[in-house]
Amino acid sequence: MSVLIDLKNRGVRDVFFLVCDGLKGLPDVVTNVWPQTIVQTCIVHLIRNTFRLVSRRDWDAVKRDIKPIYTAPSPDAALAALDEFEEKWGAKHAAVIRLWRNAWNEFTPFLDYDVEIRAMICSTNAIESLNARYRRAIRARGHFPTEQAAMKCLYLVTRSLDPTGSGRARWTMRWKPVINAFAITFGDRWPGAETY
């Protein structure tokens, strides 16, 4: 909670949405600090957890039958797809149905966004990968004499992801449609939305 208060004190005025992977209490804390935040579960984690509950011989059939749920154009279409999935697999994989029903309130906000936004917010994997690299670098060094030394280490790890800078243009082009979709979706809260 104190980290979130510190972010707010440093000028983070608004958080549009929070993508989390089941960390208990985090959604409540974030919505206490930023009440307009939309909480969404990580779709990749939800799918991954689905396959942990399914026997390997059913994976292909379940994969085919679960896809209409998370690619549905609307929450109503997704609910209809989940009902069809339950009719077919409910008796054999009741735990999967319970998993999706329990996560439903945090899953459905995902369906309200344009395809460009969905592609960027469906997972927490990118930040998890970056955090793993940070942990590996910190573990290798053991300790740091100053805070500046620690920040320099994290900066160098971040720079090592794209040492030549050639990926910057690719990422810029990938984010342009997303930024435009954000400006439309969150126009009243998006700073400078009128310029897009």
Automatic annotation (TrEMBL):
This is Mutator family transposase. The keyword DNA-binding applies. The lineage of its organism: Bacteria, Bacillati, Actinomycetota, Actinomycetes, Pseudonocardiales. PANTHER family: MUTATOR FAMILY TRANSPOSASE, TRANSPOSASE FOR INSERTION SEQUENCE ELEMENT IS1081. It comes from the Bacteria. It comes from Amycolatopsis roodepoortensis. Keywords: DNA recombination, DNA-binding, Transposable element, Transposition. Belongs to the transposase mutator family. Required for the transposition of the insertion element. The keyword Ubl conjugation does not apply.
